[in-house]
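Human: I hope this is not a bother. Would you mind checking the protein record under this note? Thank you for your patience.
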Amino acid sequence: MPKTTDVPHELREFNKVFENISYRHGWGDVFVDFIDYSVACFLPAGDLKVADYLKKKYGKDYGFFKELFNEWLRAQHKQLNRGKMWYDALGAFYEVIASSSKASHLGQFFTPPDVVDMLTMITADKAREGARQRIADPCSGSGRMLVSFHAHFPGNYCFAADVDAICTKMTALNMMLHGCEGQAVCMNSLDPDDWRFGYAVNPWIREFGGLPHLARIEKEQCFQWRGFQQDKEKYAQRKAEEAAAQKEALTAVKPEPVMGKFGQLSFL
């Protein structure tokens, strides 16, 4: 298990519960399943498939997921009540277990919080609170960039994309808990046709009285995917117009007949 000294102080209680499951089921697997459990908790109708799968996989240990969920929310609540504008408990714990070779499939490390806030303030001259601007992070990790931006400039629309499924889900959960509105999708930002799944983050937060929630979306509902399709159509249309113009220019040039060496007609 992760050494206690490697775990941030505010996540020690979370880690104690995590240890009760992970020594039997594996660090990486438990974390991935906890993320799926948490996402299911915030879907309006839940996710019975995820619940049935976890109950079957963990048996009597399934009850620890509820404890993990509670400790995660407590850690978030305590840090925000202590004056932090935002806090990424999931990303911080992910980095702790990812540093172990036993969880090598969780192989990412995220931008440090202070650097994240610095990058947010670099954009401050163009950002406005409540402007409903669309702010995009094409490689969101655990969502820190967008959460920080929302903390400093609330009231904008945040769009997150990441090719890693766990990062996408962590981003959705982090954005949701911090009151962001937007989308978090699993896709290749360099090739948006490689679209896998996505969530609308707090789409009905005003109707729900501020209650955080997620909702699944299809690619046709994804702003970036739709924009990419529109760009592809415009590009194809422009190329077709250029090809037609080039063909017209070539046919407009008629060859001039000249007398050949022996009096026959030739065309240059």
About this structure: The first strand starts at residue 134 and ends at 137. Residues 259 and 265 are 5 Å apart (CA to CA).
